[in-house]
Amino acid sequence: MAPDTPPLSNASAGSNHGQQALRIPSDLALILDDTGSTPTGSQDGPPAKKRSRTTIDYTHRKRVPVACQFCRLRKVKCDNARPSCGYCLRQRARCVYGENDSPQPPSPAGHDAESEGSDQKILARLDEIKDMIGRLQVASPAASDGGLTRLCQRFLTLFHPRNPILDGKWLMRFAKMADENGLQWDSASCLVLLASALGVTTQPWKKPPEIHTDTLLRAHDTAPFFENKTNAEAYFLAAKKRLGLLGDSLLDIQCLFLAFIYEKTYFRHLQAWFYLQQAATRLQVRLLKTGTRPWVTCDSSGPNDLHIEQRVFWSCFRAEREFLLEIDLPPSGLGDLSYPDPLPEPPLTFATLGADVETKALSPTNYDSRFEERGWCYYLAEISLRRTIDDTLQHLAEGGEKSWLSNPPQLIRQYHELEKQRSLWRFHLPTIVQFDDEQVPDNEFAFGLRGRFLEWNELLLRPVLYHVLHLPSDQTPLQECVELAEKAIHLCVQKIYEYQHTLRHGGSWFITRRIFAYACLILAAATQPERRIKLPVRWGSAIQVAIQALGFWSQDAADFPCSGPTAEAPTEEATKLGWQASCSYAPTSCRRTPQRRRIFPGTGRPSSQPRHQPSELSEPEPGPGPVSPRSQSPEAIQSRWDAVLCRPPVEPTPPAPTDVPFTLSFGPSKPVPELLAALPPDPVCEYLVTRYFATLSPLFHILHGPTFQKQYWDFLQNPQQADLSWLALLYAICGLTLKTVPPTDPGLSELWEDSSTPRDLSSLSLKCREAAMMCLSQDQFLVRHNLNTLEALLILIHTIANTEGAEYGWVLLGNALHIAIALRCHINGDASNFIERERRRRCWAGILILHTDQTLLYRDIDLSSLANMKASMPSDANDDEIQEHAILTSPAQASSRRITHMSLIRFHFQLFQLSTRVHSHVSGPNQLNEAALSPFDAEISEQQQQWDSLYLVNGARSILDTAGYAHWCILQTYAHQLYLLLHRPFHHSRSSCFRPESRDRCAQSGLALLDIHRQFFQLPRLKCYRWLVNGTISCNALHGAVALTSCLVDMPNDADFTEHLAVIDAAVVRLECLKRKSPACSHIYPILRCLQLRLSRASPPSPARELAESRFEDWVSNVDWFRPDAIDWDFWDGDFSTPQADDDLTATT
Questions:
Q1: How much is the pTM?
Q2: Which segment of the chain is annotated as a signal peptide (predicted)?
């Protein structure tokens, strides 16, 4: 609780001591006096100023109206109504006027006699007045010693665990001080009164009985019985008089929030909304005044502003979002704040409630040492669930009802995708609040989460139910749609039966509205003429249960419909159609026809979460494993809070710059003209873009050409207004193209006209990449991102991996992965815009391709989590066939095997799945399992056959399609790397699991990798792809050479290795030409020279040679063939040193 609230004053202790015998609480006068006057002797309010008397006051005054005796006693103005004044009527008291109380003024002579007679009559009624005061005193629990303390204890036991917005220790301190010293006119006393009112109102939770029969609802079964509703209203009325004195401290906001809960409990939802808006608005004022606050650790021994502020913020946010779904009122704007804390922080320790409160009499099954821990799990899960349900509703309402009718397959896919998110949330619930869908939980927190979980499922099914109900009669719905609609109706019946046992609490109004909604859905299915949906057996009884529940709660809320005009007519119509309702209806009266409301929030509603969401945790990985056991310590419990949240969707468009709560720039900001100055001249820039899409883009085709072309022409029209993320994409394209063209290329002639431009394309490429990162940094890409941002990052990573090394792009790849998840690229988006959907799918495919290289190069990562994300592959279509509203692919084209822009990407997509499984196999304990080799070999071979059928002509390369043959060669490198990974443990005769077939397989794959390197280096038709030999292709060649050498030294001496040695010699010559081109080639060349020397020795083996050969085999068995930078270079000294003639060459590397 806020430390800025002063504690209750002890100044009134002495003055109240004399009143202890009578023990009349000071607020009793407030309960009796609705005019707001303070009674004499009360210590609660400021003392009334006495008017100074004048001489006129001591003379006789004439007055026509005469107050009744009771108003005279209270010294207040009487309205002089006859026969009873207004106040006596309200208090049901006997109103007595004096015998001479007539409109005529009394004579001066009889004044003393009249006064004496009135005093005698008042004294005669003294016993009656004392009896009235006694009755009121009994009706107030505060009249007994320690009453406020006991009620606050009851509040902390029954209410506070559901919404721990207060500091319980400080509340008890305030309550004890109020009992000892009396109530004051401050926020602490207001809080005590509100807690007492809720303590009287809140009833212990009881587990609803299991429903096995069609037992109908009876009023006394579910009607909550309150021992003293008058007491609750008295406490709230006393607190209400203090609400007007509140400010914007945390304690004041807590008072307003509890007032909101109390009003909501008694179905006064509009007044509750008023108090909630007051709390939310004052919280915003406080946050804006406070500004940036330092982080402080939780101190359980005293109040702490930060942690109480977290609870207050998220409680108000959750309550407002729940209200906005029911009442279309303007929000407070609390959700638009960039609040930094994603969840309230739980206390470090959980207290045992049984030590402070006798809870056995309340509910013997619920309260134990884990009660508060369970309550906090419920509280955090409720917050995450509220936000996730809001996001689900926003997603379902995007297309409106028309989209639900027009595309039933999309509805089914949408339901299954959202159902996965629902299952993920359920999977990560802490064990202490876990529940079973089919059984009613034994504790109230699991019961509440189970109810929300089932409501979530019904909301997901509602569009499908709408489709089945509103489909024209001449059309037949899909069978799966009908099954899902029946599932929705069964859920409605189940929830009505479970909700009939609801006691009065803050959510009773929402639950009753849901009962009405479920009943309407059931009746809609029952009155459908086509009878497409098979109704449950107990649907009629469920309708009657709903009618009786609505009739009961209508005593508190007039907006609830009753049975007669609302439900009887549809049920009779359903009976005529053949459905057997088998139930009767109790006669009830209908007070008001309910207003129509939207089933789902409209797109115009404000966002359902604050704008700090893009920085939240990524979506947790699904898994079939068991749920972790319940934590035995608060520290372990605290480590699971972040798993409660599921990632909400991120808006595809970036927010305004003012919405960014913090900056993550990597350098000073530069003006746009300065960023544009680093671009090449327009003709050169256009040439680089054209060359990129002609030769480079097909290797990594993640861009949609027509979309980029439109963006490029818009950029040329107004460069100053260019989006920074798209400018970064343009720089990334230019940087990659400059890395792959020779300086003598005619397209670069205008670039050299400026004498200050260095004729070093590598440095120019590096400058373009630096400019791309500068644009991304200035655009705040870590907190604001769109598809252009992701595309620019992927092209940058692709360039780095193929020119510098894959390890240099690993960190950027992690950022790109999480940005892709935030942009929901791994989830099938709305089919209303096919271009955007395909761009997202291509970006996700690019993520997987780059991770495939990481899988083959590194052994310290496991990408099975990515493989488990069942994202869809990009459509097998060319760029010009993808339009905004459709993909223009004819049925003949779709059924035929043809090369498209996406062919290579789709093959890479399949390779990622296969390589991930191979990597898991060779890194696991079953890598020596020979039985697993054949299935993997068959899969790789099947992939190769698909490549051959698409890219080759009768098994030979096509002279008409150069790009297709280059793609085939690149795919073959992945296949042979996978062969080497699988067969490496079995290829050597010294191995305990030697297989001759594996040695032959390794030798063949090694020769194939060296031959692919030769083709990229020598074939003129692959000249535009020769830049690949500077990086990955040469690394693959080293892998093949080491594998081939290991196989050759293990073969018999009489074997003919002439052809194999010629392949190694040719590879050495090529690497000698490339060793100055890149760091990778400079490392590879000396190793190939040593391998060449080792294979060229023809002398018979000596013991020393055998020892050296053994050392070589040990080195080959332990070296990581994919990582030249991790090779033990010291091994090559001594017997395996390179010839003297190469020393000068080796020294340069």
A1: 0.45
A2: none
